[in-house]
Amino acid sequence: MSTHGDYVQMKPIYKSVVVAVITTASLCISADALARDIYVNNQIGSDFLDGFSEDRGQGKIGPVKTITRALALARRGDNIVLANTGQSYQESISIQGARHNGLKKKPFLIVGNGATLDGTRTIKPEEWDIVGNAVFEMTPRETTRTLLYLDGKPATSVAVNRDATKVPELAPNQWCIYRGRIYFKCEEGKIPLDYELSLTDLQVGISIYNVRGLIISDLTIQGFRQDGINAHDNVFECELAELRVRGNGRSGISVGGSSRVLIEACLIGSNGKTQVRTEARSIVKLRSNDIISADDGTGVDDGGAQVIQED
């Protein structure tokens, strides 16, 4: 398709006609028509495909495998559509710059369709050492904000006093961190190999910077060592809707700088220190959310300029 620049060198006799055609075409083309759907499927997709078809076709037709690749292909006002395959997307993604902005009347969309973005890594059986009384221990690469996952969900932790001289009593399926090591108690007759055990590993689930006109919806974000979502700075007209943000090491959602973010109809809980964290000059609107505070953490840390509760 020709661009407006293609007409610059045309002879004057055609100028009025060309302007009329362009104006009429512009009125007829809606923002939705300009947007493209980029499909992501972590089972049947490949990052060598074009991303513009939900199903595999001939040649390079079909969905991409990673959200990272979809973001690399995207331009302003596009829709990134995730397939919920039952398998988590194991990656950390970054949304930034003009290519990830919305159009004037059409936001840039990431539609999760109930899929999960997961930052954990599986603990290998050989990483565990037996302590006794069905308790096993292992040494993580990092202990700061590390959380243990059991069967794909945050496991129940037991707090350890700073002056503790031994591992606290653990009930089956409970865990703690003591002197830089993780301790987990199995059920009677079981060993760690009998469980699906994993650790928070990747740093941040979704980093957002210098973006305007963004909506992220219907996605579970879990298992990251710092934040599930971090709107770092200069993020405007951003809406986070119907998300499930859980089991991240520092906070579920962090909003900083001069960002303006609406958080609506989200379930946010079981995050390490704070469920919603704000700082600097940020303004956050909260609408119809279910925010579950941890026993040793806070629900909303209003360190930013303003937190507006609209429930």
Q: Please give the number of β-strands.
A: 24
| SSE arrangement, N to C | HHEHEEEEEEEEEEEEEEEEEEEEEEE
Secondary structure: helix percent: under 10%
Q: What low-confidence regions span 5 or more consecutive residues with pLDDT below 50?
A: 1-28
Strand content bin? 35-45%
> Helical stretch count?
3
Report mean pLDDT, rounded to a whole number: 89
How many domain modules?
3
Gross morphology is globular
Radius of gyration: 24 Å
Largest sheet properties: 15 strands, parallel
Straight-line N-to-C gap: 47 Å
Structural class label: mainly beta
Tell me what the structure shows.
By secondary structure, the protein is mainly β. It has three domains: 1-32, no CATH class; 35-119 and 203-309; 121-200. The chain contains three helices and 24 strands. It has helices spanning 15-28, 31-34, 67-73, and strands spanning 37-40, 79-82, 93-96, 108-118, 120-122, 129-132, 135-138, 148-150, 153-154, 156-157, 174-178, 181-185, 197-200, 204-222, 227-241, 244-246, 251-255, 260-264, 267-269, 274-278, 283-287, 290-292, 298-302, 306-309. The strands form three sheets. The protein has a 15-stranded parallel beta sheet that branches. It has a five-stranded mixed beta sheet with strand order 6-7-12-11-10, with no helix packed on it. It has a four-stranded antiparallel beta sheet with strand order 5-13-8-9, with no helix packed on it. The longest helix has 14 residues, at 15-28. The chain is globular, with a radius of gyration of 24 Å. Residues 1-28 have low confidence and may be disordered.
